[in-house]
Amino acid sequence: MSAPAGWLRRSLGAKLLLAQMLVVVAGSLTIAVIALAVAPGVFHTHVRMALGTIPPEVTRHLDEGLARAMLVALGTGTGVAVATALGVSLLLARRIAGPLGALSRAAGQLARGRYSARVPKPAGDDELASLAAAFNTMAETLAASEQRRRPKPPGCAGWSTTSTPSPAPKRASSTCTWSAASPTRCSPPPSRPPGPPMPPRTSP
To answer: What is the residue extent of each domain of the chain?
Structure first.
């Protein structure tokens, strides 16, 4: 596959530019065909109405001048249209392809487990802004769900232990809570002192 074809397949901005160029070329060809088919007849009619019968040599010079004027007009108009289409395509590519590219990269990070990935909200309240807001909401929901799904074993880094005494004779239980700001190791709950020995049982 050639380099331009590969760039066209990968770039949304290139597709927008190509679409604009096709519209410009089609419009220019249409105008040229219509002008060449209609303009000479209308021009000759007005010349005869204004000057009457004119010599063939004068008619030939008039036809050459008309053809040259039409070519200059069509060439200038096509060039201006191509430059305008190029500028509009660049603006559309930046407005549409830029946020979509950021969304694609953030989605790839999210698929690899980086739940902190977010996309900046584009200016305006159009579909792209709604899509970015929906993606950020989805990423926050996934991050919260992953946080709840993680196990909370005691004695691991990043969990702090709060000992809660339980009614005797049960030992104290430990509750681990995640603290991202102070990832310290938690220690097991303190053991209760042994109670008095049980008296030996006597048979009746």
So the answer is: 12-113
